[in-house]
């Protein structure tokens, strides 16, 4: 078992309304506080704070965290967020694999398993295997179904986030318009949230390692190429869930290169793992996949190093325009090629810093993913906790518990 916890950005105190769900947002950073400290911070009456804390303790979301020092008399009790109160099922579906994990409400991974499978097998086959594995992992973690707060799923294609339906995904035959949410809820009757895999990678990477950056781009370079865009702290999905589809932006040098989308010169057709492998294969090297490209780079083959550096320049050509348009302070390169491709990142930096406006790059950092292959799992977990721990949902949960009681 491994654990990887994220960081939580504190809420705006001015926006608190005095409900238990609002008060809970202050405690989500994990720092223990007394009732008196909460009353001072929020401006609420101590009696109001006491009743809200009692409700949160009853729900299990908040628990005792020792005693504060006393200047005389009985020491006051401290309370803190209890991330172990519930668990989240986080799922990362890739083109040729799926990773399923159980996390606590702070994003710490308590059980995890990788499943080798083809997304092209279709939604029912893929989701059926994932749901069976999910039951095994919940049992391994010692958590009954009633402890499950929600399910977060990342898919390798455009997703209509409000419904969870894939929208014409190019590498997912049989998935277009499939009702993922109700299918999963037949086995797991909890909130189910679905998004594009690069979006949740951006969410996971930023939450865990770069919460201070409100304008953030995550670039995935793997079987395909895509971007997750966070602007002013909010994930940007676009009108139809296709925001960030850098892979099908035209690259000038690719006029004669046909992409699987039917257009010529797409970035994915030149800079993805399979595309670079095809270029090396044409030079007589043994390369069929992105993994082969990285192997050849590790072996010191100059053709592979040059090809990966050129792929980085191609990504940089497209990314330079995005940097001018969105003005991020942080760009992170991830995906199976991006995480291991230092030469790729060098090519990206070379072009972005040369082609973007000086003002846009004055404080811009470009780096390699720190979350690595766990970025999507952390993001899927975060997507669920953002929903189930929001003020309105916590308030509704507490009201439901009171009625049930």
List the helices and strands and how they pair.
Blueprint: H1 20-27, E1 33-34, H2 35-42, H3 46-59, E2 62-67, E3 77-81, E4 87-93, E5 97-104, E6 109-116, H4 123-140, E7 148-155, E8 159-160, E9 165-166, H5 180-185, E10 192-196, H6 197-209, E11 216-221, E12 225-231, E13 234-236, H7 267-271, H8 273-282, H9 290-298, H10 302-326, E14 330-334, H11 335-340, H12 342-355, H13 358-361, E15 365-368, H14 375-388, H15 391-404
Parallel strand pairs: 4-7, 7-10, 11-14, 14-15
Antiparallel strand pairs: 1-3, 2-3, 4-5, 5-6, 8-9, 11-12, 12-13
Walk me through the structure.
The protein has 405 residues and is α/β, with parallel strands linked by helices. α8 packs across α9. The protein has three domains: 72 residues, Orthogonal Bundle (Arc Repressor Mutant, subunit A), CATH 1.10.10; 146 residues, Nucleotidyltransferase, domain 5, CATH 3.30.420; 165 residues, Nucleotidyltransferase, domain 5 (2-Layer Sandwich). The chain contains 15 helices and 15 strands. The longest helix is centred in the last third of the chain and has 25 residues. A hairpin with a 4-residue loop joins β5 and β6.
């Amino acid at each position: 078992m491994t654990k990887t916890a994220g960081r939580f950005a504190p809420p705006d105190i001015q926006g608190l309304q005095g409900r238990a769900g609002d008060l809970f947002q202050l405690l989500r950073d994990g720092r223990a506080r007394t009732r008196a400290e909460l009353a001072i911070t929020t401006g609420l009456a101590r009696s109001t704070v006491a009743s809200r804390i009692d409700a949160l303790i009853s729900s299990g979301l908040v628990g005792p965290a020792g005693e504060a020092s006393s200047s005389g008399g009985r020491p006051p009790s401290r309370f803190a967020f209890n991330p172990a109160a519930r668990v989240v099922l986080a799922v990362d579906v890739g083109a040729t694999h799926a990773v399923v994990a159980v996390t606590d409400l702070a994003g710490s991974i308590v059980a995890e398993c990788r499943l080798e499978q083809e997304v092209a097998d279709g939604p029912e086959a893929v989701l059926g295997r994932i749901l069976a594995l999910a039951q095994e992992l919940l049992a391994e973690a010692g958590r009954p179904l009633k402890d499950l707060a929600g399910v977060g799923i990342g898919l390798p294609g455009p997703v209509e986030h409000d419904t969870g339906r894939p929208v014409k995904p190019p590498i997912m035959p049989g998935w277009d318009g499939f009702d993922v949410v109700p299918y999963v809820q037949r086995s797991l009757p909890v909130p189910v949230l679905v998004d594009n895999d690069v979006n949740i990678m951006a969410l996971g990477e930023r939450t865990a390692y770069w919460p201070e950056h409100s304008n953030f781009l995550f670039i995935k370079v793997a079987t395909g190429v895509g971007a997750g865009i966070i602007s002013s702290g909010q994930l940007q999905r676009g009108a139809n869930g296709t925001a960030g589809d850098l892979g099908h932006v035209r690259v000038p040098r690719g006029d004669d290169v046909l992409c699987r989308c039917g257009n010529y010169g797409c970035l994915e057709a030149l800079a993805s793992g399979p595309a670079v492998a095809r270029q090396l294969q044409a030079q007589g090297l043994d390369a069929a996949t992105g993994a082969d490209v990285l192997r050849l780079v590790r072996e010191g083959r100059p053709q592979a190093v040059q090809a990966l550096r050129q792929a980085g320049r191609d990504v940089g050509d497209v990314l330079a325009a995005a940097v001018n348009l969105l003005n991020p302070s942080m760009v992170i390169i991830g995906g199976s090629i991006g995480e291991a491709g230092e030469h790729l990142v060098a090519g990206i930096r070379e072009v972005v810093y040369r082609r973007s406006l000086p003002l846009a790059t004055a404080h811009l950092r470009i780096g390699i993913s720190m979350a690595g292959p766990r970025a999507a799992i952390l993001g899927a977990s975060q997507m669920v906790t953002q929903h189930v721990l929001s003020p309105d949902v916590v308030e509704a949960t507490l009201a439901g518990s009171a009625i049930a009681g």
